[in-house]
Task: structure prediction
Amino acid sequence: MKQTPPRTCGVDEAGRGPLAGPVYAAAVILNPARPIPGLKDSKKLSAASRVRLAHEIREHALAWAVATASVAEIERLNILHASMLAMRRAVLLLHPTPELALIDGNRCPDLPCLARAIIKGDSLEPAISAASILAKTERDKEMEKLAVIYPEYGFDRHAGYPTPEHLAALEAHGPCPEHRRLFGPVKKIIENEQQR
Result:
């Protein structure tokens, strides 16, 4: 069996599916001498557990970084390429630089190191789980800030995902500058407004 290089980072993103806000990515090189119990896919953790583990990751990891791609970049590149851009940015911020990047999903961003895509990697690789936790907690913080600026949408409750509450708010108020205008439900509301 091939030895995993000591400087292996896990990489994951948060926020591909929402109708609003940036997409976030994180990259983490765990420290084998300081294991973090309880790492798993961020979607399988409570919000409180994610926050606690995010703190431990920052304290104990050899290196970690979080990066984003903006709504404008999502609209220019599409969500897949914007997610890849955010992942690349996160990996490039790591010091020390990784020798291998394990990416959650079925494709890899363009990186200066070896990279391997792992489907359901956030459940299989602790470093990817750690990255998923950091990306999710940082994005949630950003959506809480946007909820203060745009209180009518309830971003702190649904993080921009297309819940019935969010869709009703979109219908009532139209999109705000943080909405992704090329995403189906937002695009449809804009088109309906233009036809009125």
